[in-house]
Amino acid sequence: MRKIGLCFLASLCFAVRLAASTVTVAVAQNEVAPEIALETSSLIEDEIMGSLYDEGYIVSNNDISLVGTAYADPSFGIKDATEGFSDYLIAVLVEYAEEAVKDAERQIVYAEIRAVTWRLVRLSDGKVLAERVVDMKKAKADDPQDRARRLAKIIGRDCDRLLRKE
Predict the structure, then answer these.
(1) Which of 30, 35, 57, 160 is the most buried (most CB within 10 A)?
(2) Where is 25: in which H helix or E strand?
(3) Are 6 and 12 in contact (CB under 8 A)?
(4) pLDDT, tens digit (0-9, with 9 covering 90-100), for 130-158
(5) CATH class for domain 22-165?
(6) Who contacts 81 (Cβ-Cβ below 8 Å, separation ≥6)?
(7) Can you tell me the distance from the alpha carbon of 53 to that of 60, in angstroms, rounded to the nearest whole number?
C-alpha cells in the first residue's frame, strides 16, 4: 500500500509540474517570402502549439512576425511571452523561397520552405536552453502542408524532450 501511495504522489507531482509549465510560441518568417507563406507559418505555429498542448503544456502564441531579421535579436518574443506569464519561449524562424511555387498537376500554390531554425528560452533567466536548425530531410513529404506539419512536430517533440529535463 505504501508503494501505491508513493507512486500516486510522484505521478501527482509530475502532473502538477506539467500543468504549471506555460510555453509561448513566436514565429518569424523572412521578408521576401511570398504572401501565401503566412498560411504555412500559421500552420507551423498551430502544429507546434498542438503537439505541446497534447503533452500537457499550457500554450500561447505571439503574432507572426513578417520581419525575419527580428529572430536574430536574442530578445525576439521574450517581452510578449513574459507579459503573458509564460515559463518558456519557443522562437521559430521559417525561411521561404522568394517566389511561390505553382504546381499545375495538383493545382496548388505554396511557399517553399528553405530552412527552419528554432530556439527554446527559459524566461525566468533568459537562458537559451537549445537552438537548432531542423534537418529538412527528416520532414520529406509530397504535400507541402504535410511537410510543414512534420517540421512543426519535430520542433514540438524536441522542445518537449528538453522541457521534461528542466
Answers:
(1) 57
(2) strand 22-29
(3) no
(4) 999 999 888 888 899 999 999 999 999 99
(5) alpha beta
(6) 24, 26, 60, 62, 88, 89, 123
(7) 10
The three cell numbers locating residue 24: 509561448
Strand partners, 131: 119
Q: What is the pLDDT at residue 144? A: 94
Per-domain residue ranges of the chain: 22-165
CB 52 within 8 A of CB 23: yes
Q: Grid coordinates in use for 33?
A: 517570402
State pLDDT tens for residues 12-58.
444 444 455 999 999 999 999 999 999 999 999 999 999 999 999 99
In 3D, which of 92, 38, 42, 40 has the Cα closest to residue 70? 92
Q: Is 107 left (phi over 0), alpha (psi -120 to 50) or beta?
A: left
DSSP secondary structure of 51-73: HHHHTT-EEEEPPPBS-GGGGGS
Exposed, middle or buried by CB within 10 Å (0-12, 13-18, 19+), for 56?
Answer: middle
Residue pair 159/151 in contact by the 8 Å Cβ criterion: no
